[in-house]
Amino acid sequence: MTQHVVAEHFESAEQAFEASKLGLWLFLVTEILLFGGLFVLYIVFRGLYPELFHEASHHLNRTLGALNTVVLICSSFTMALAVSRVQHNDSKKAAGLLLFTFLCGLTFMIVKYCEYTHKIHEGLLPGVHFSFTEMAHPKAPLFFSLYFMMTGLHGLHVLVGMGLIAWVLIRTRRGDFSSQYFTPVELTGIYWHLVDLIWIYLFPLLYLIG
Amino acid sequence: MKKFLRYLEGHETVYITIWGMLLVLTILTVWVSYHNFGIMNIVVAMLVATIKGSLVCLYFMHLKYDNKTNQVVFISAFVFLAIFVGLVGSDVFFRPSVRYPESSGHLAHAAFEDLSQSTPELVKRGQELFKVHCIACHALGHASGKFKSEISSQKIYETIVKGLSDAAMPSFSDLGEKERWALTHYVDSLKK
User: Does A190 touch chain B (CB under 8 A)?
Assistant: First the structure.
């Protein structure tokens, strides 16, 4: 087991931990405002074309959307448990939980891949690729552009989160973390929960309310 | 290190409770979506999402046990988001000229006015709009942006709506109907 050394500009391990965490929360604020831009677009277009959103949301697969919601909630749960286990010096269980969380992320991406292939096959990609004929509304591509942008940006965050979890998993296995030092696990956890939080809003907005 | 462990004791059972509540709320929101409550659909869906989101923030992200600074920082994100939504929304939904008559019916009264008839007000409005939307390409007297004198006002209107692919003129269909007619009458008045 390697002993973590507190950087010399910090007074204590606790101060170092709090500083890192404040940094992450600030970063999460920018993340919310990044997605906020897309949510504002959604609100504006939904307000202008309510009947388009109503019709288009029926062309998304609710079952797959709900499945992904459950997968992400479970992964958030195991992530929270993993952080707790590390803090209780139980790296072995923590590694198992992190692996499960990673696999949940992978499941989410596989389901997303299936959804995307189906949508692309139907000709729902925006721009010149749009060749979907089941919807008569002249602004039909608008909804699907938003769908691809919002879920695409979210999917990118899932991939980044998976990368972080894999990194933390390797370090947990190596025995880097203990009740004295677990900053990366805690911060990865908070980031992963944000990814879940955003999906909690995306799911009803895109799939459910028509 | 005592402070670290302060918010850890006994929390794994809390996590299980939260996890269960999140799953129940997910089932609830899907179930609700199969029933039509009109305008309440979006209210219920957003309410459930907000409860779920709060549970995630407070317990999984430990925000409930975190220090005040972090709580204020994170909540500030939503304050800024509200300002963002509020200002954009009030601009888009309450400014008459950007309303979209074909979808919303906000300009239903426009149907009673015959916009295809030129009036001095419309020409004046068209002149103002021309300075904003058209002058960049149609600088008056510039050869490339000259209007053909034999063109009918109906044709001008269609061109504004559809654009010209061979002359690189974009469509101005996102202008309101009244605005498009105002531009038509102004351009029409130029060629006389």
Answer: yes
User: A51 near A148, Cβ under 8 Å?
Assistant: no
Contacts of A93 (CB under 8 A, 6+ apart): A85
> Quick check: A56 and A122 in contact, CB under 8 A?
no
User: What are the start-end ranges of the H helices in B111-152?
Assistant: 120-133
Q: Can you give the pLDDT of all 210 residues of chain A as single tens digits?
A: 456 788 888 988 889 999 999 999 999 999 999 999 999 999 999 988 888 888 888 889 999 999 999 999 999 999 999 999 999 999 999 999 999 999 999 999 999 999 999 998 888 887 777 777 777 777 888 889 999 999 999 999 999 999 999 999 999 999 999 888 999 999 999 999 999 999 999 999 999 876
Are the Cβ atoms of B26 and A70 closer than 8 angstroms? yes
Pick A13-208's CATH classification: 3.30.470.20, 1.20.1290.10, 3.40.190.150, 1.20.120.80: 1.20.120.80
**Residue A60 and residue A202 in contact, taking contact as beta carbons nearer than 8 Å:** no
How far apart are the C-alpha atoms of A57 and A140, rounded to whole Å? 11
**How many CA atoms within 13 Å lie on the side-chain side of B139?**
4
Give B68 to chain A, closest Cα distance, Å: 11
The CA distance from B120 to B113, in Å, is 14
Within 10 angstroms of residue A109's Cβ, the number of other Cβ atoms is 17
**Cross-chain residue pair A22–B103, CB shorter than 8 Å:** no
Spatial distance between the Cα atoms of B105 and B108, rounded to a whole number of angstroms: 5
Beta carbons of B129 and B135 less than 8 angstroms apart: no
CA dihedral B65, A87, A190, A188 (to 10 degrees): 160
Domain segments of chain A: what residues?
A: 13-208
The tokens describing A156, both together, are 């990118």
ipTM: 0.91
CA distance B157 to chain A (A): 19
Domains, chain B: 2-96 (no CATH), 113-191 (1.10.760.10)
Of B30, B70, B89, the CB nearest to A66: B30
The alpha carbon of residue B103 is apart from the nearest alpha carbon of chain A, in Å, by 6
